[in-house]
Amino acid sequence: MNDLSYQYHCINSAQCSVTDRIAALQDYVGAAYGENGKVQYDKKLTQTERQYVETQFGKLPADKKKLTETVIQDYLTQAQRKFFVRLGLDDNRAQQCTRDFIYQEIKKAKAYFLGGAHGCGPKFSQLYLQNGLELAIASNPDSWVFFIEGYGKDQMAPEAEAELFKQIGKALHIPLYNPLIYNATGLSVINTAATTYHRNIKEYIGYLVLAAFIMNVKQSRVPLRFFHDLLNQTIKRFCEIYELDESKAREAFFTFTEKSPAESEQAFMIRLGTTDLIRKIEAKEPAITRELIDTSNQLNIGHVEQGLSANPTRPKAFFQGGRMHLALVESVYKPK
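and the corresponding structure tokens:
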């Protein structure tokens, strides 16, 4: 079979011939969800690309009556799943990936926001498809800019959703930005928040290290005897990412967890394994989290505005991040 040419809009249009629509869908799926470099989304599906896509993701029906929107949605859903499985990022964090996700359109500004818990790549991809964004963006990629939380920045662990939208953006040749160069856990945000809200910096750092440690305990499920090593690894990694001094971070952690000099290390590690600290972090979490994220949102407004200004021919913007960063997007588009 010869190479097939198509127009981008055919991926989202039943008015195109079935051949053109299938070519657009296959080229997109191969570029967005396949191995890097195997397929180019470039208005031409080559024989080699088609063979690769059909091997990896299956075939689509060539009968226009059978190529329904439901069939297309199922095809894209399966492609998303295979993407996450290939990268080993297919496990939703079950409890936190079932609630508190939002999709918000700022229609006058042509901005669209998907927000929710971190590490829930399959849930984000589902919402991206179900809300019509996936096909709308793929049908006109030259009009879009992507702002993806975590893009281009090292993290405690790779987030599935950042990997997903990074590959989609690159496949569609869409400019990519991390909207949060001032991360809510970064030192500049912590210092600003401490001044604004009259808190001791140690309280923020101690809270953040404890939260990271608890997350690592839950994910690794290590027994109590390994808590000491896991704590050291958590502090070291945390300080590397957020450029903090290890000794100061450790001191802040001990202050926040109320470890006294008289408390033995064994007794302290046992206490780390109880629900007491979970209750402590849950009691402080709403206020501290809100203060840090509000501060991050305010500091990042100018950065997002610069990204938009750098792409004057691209009037539409897609934002993905934690749901509390919707306030950042709304502030950017708020009438001046």
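(Above: one complete record from the training split.) Residues 276-309 form the longest helix (34 residues).
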